[in-house]
Amino acid sequence: xxxxxxxxxxxxxxxxxGGEAVGVRLGAGDDAALVEFGHxxxxxxxxxxxxxxxxxxxxxxxxxxxxxxxxxxxxxxAAMGGSPRYGLASIGLPxxxxxxxxxxxxxxxxxxxxxxxxxxxxxxxxxxxxxxxSMTVTGEVDPGAVVTRGGGRPGERIVVxxxxxxxxxxxxxxxxxxxxxxxxxxxxxxxxxxxxxxxxARVGEGQALARSGATAMIDLSDGLAKDLGRLCAQSEVGAxxxxxxxxxxxxxxxxxxxxxxxxxxxALHGGEDYELLATLPGEAVPAAAETLWEAFATRLTEIGxxxxxxxxxxxxxxxxxxxxxxxGWDHFGG
Length: 334
Ligand SMILES: [Mg+2]
Fold this sequence. Notes:
By secondary structure, the chain is an alpha+beta fold. It is 34% helix and 24% strand.
């Protein structure tokens, strides 16, 4: 039995989302929010997280869930070279959810909004048979700086920010029995679990890559192989990935036995890293890497090249080539 009414919930959410914010003429409380859009291209993106499909209430805190729900949308704005501005949060709640849980959920969203310099301006609340979190984010981008998935050309280099596989490692680790969580497992494990529960959207990096001449870009939500395949399909090209150059997250090698998974496999096929993958002309790569390192302390690694034709190829350290097939990434993995 629920301890609050629909009106209680709406009043609470309005209070949480209230207050002055740059560009917001009218926030939550009217039929719609009024915001200033300016002389830029608008970016609109939405993402839904469903309990039992994308997360379990028992394995993520409401604060982390709220933070992640907004961050994954911001990541899509980043992948267009844009800047996030406003967010709408619609939630469905079953009867066994209590008010403090909801306050924590919004606390996480507001924390993420502050992290990315954007405002939450409204949304909708409903009863549901499980927790559903649907978030919409708007962003803006200068028309000359927008980067889609469709601009990759043969001969260009494929680059990726950060290191890959940590979130997938975190998901595997969350299933490891607690008696195995000792010493180095705890030490490296903390980073892997944080990658899963607190992903970071590469907003500044996306804009810097756009300025550095990126011709196509995508954020890695479903794994390198799958998302590179999506970029290539949209660009009507193929790609070759040098396996030895794929930046594997530190900690995965040390925990290989505990996780029971090959680190490279996690880096190629694990999802939810939210790093950016982009294509760049070869001569633009060194300056782009220097910019990302100096401005954000973010690594930019060249992992291969765009080719004519279709299909993804993995290049082994000895130069031999084989198909790089995307494996499915199960976001919840239960
Ligand atoms: Mg995306």
